[in-house]
Amino acid sequence: MLARTAALIVVAGLTMAQAPKPAAKAPTGAAAPFDARDPASLIGLLATAQASATVAGRTDDAVLLKVITPAYAFNADFAGCERSGRNCKALLLHTTSARSVGTLAELNGFNQSAIACKVFQDRAGKPHVSYAALVMAGDTRETMRAHLSAWQGCLASFGEFLADPTAYLAIAP
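-> structure tokens emitted (173 positions)
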């Protein structure tokens, strides 16, 4: 199971790396610096992978993004931010399934077999999958792409789990 999850993460990484690059533009000065702690940097990075992200909400210390890709939608929540909405300390990528599947024991089984993904059930019985990362001043675009690739692996594993929790867990270590 861990090997399968790791393989999915590698495949997802290759997919992100092969995403079409935007057409080159005439130089207009230095490229904007990338800061993994700034939601605007993630919004820009997602745009290079044919995805869009918009600010869906803010609190005193969080910035909540809604992300839409050609294949799926998810949320990206920055936490521990300064009032400016920058210099955030953590990023949570998450989504939910519209259908209720799996028992609590099966959800726990998924969590026991996953490296970076966590699943939980909300009060309405809907399963959620999440991936969390600390974001640091020295993180690069490549670091953030690695987080997005890991997230794609989580989504693939979550999809397999939702399709048939019993079969998914039957091959878990």
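The helical segments are 2-17, 39-47, 104-113, 141-163, 165-170.
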